[in-house]
Amino acid sequence: MGLNYIWDLLIKAQEAGIGKEQIVFVPAQVYSPYMELSLAELNAKPGEHGIEVEVNPHYRFPDLFDGLLDINLTENEELRRTLTDILLHFLAELDLTQGMNRREFYIRFVLRDMEAGSFGDRVKEGLGLFSREERDLIAEAVLRMYETGEPLHLLRSTVGKVFPRSTIYVNSEERDEMLFYIGQKKNEQRLRKLELLMELFLPVRYRTEVYWEYHVGILDADETMVLDRIAMY
User: Residue 172 pLDDT > 80, yes or no?
Assistant: First the structure.
């Protein structure tokens, strides 16, 4: 995973044997509004003044830096650059000492990106249907999906946590198909929650069938073969 946040850069620098005092944060002249750091990997060598890292300080801290780095200001440029470096080091250390480990930071920022619309408007709007705990587990599953490339396993796991009585069957031999049994009555909120999970994790080649209150009948599984409580497949 590439670097995006100042705290992440300090962790990678420490792992590479680079002291944080060798890192010099400087305001980027050209930057993406969706990223905090301009570099993708920490591969530079220290120069005379250390490793200069270009930062978009307006990404997370506009209230602090919009005035300090106003493009209309031309006086005391060196002082303002020094203050920017000091403040960004302080903020990075603050990030790292708020009782969260590295993975929890990644999960927090995946969730924030989803809530900001980076995964599309439907995901952004649909997240409000989930509890805070459910949103956290969805963000963790998205992170794991990018790390492992196993969306089907994560879809089954996440649906199982959001709908505890659910069961998912995968038919990959005859055709790419997934059968969802939710074990609850269908309503608009539950439908939208399931659709959001499918949008995030379901590979496009799979077709789906969803059974809500009644399970599809399965031979030799007596609990699924009760009259008036069988869904037809």
Answer: no
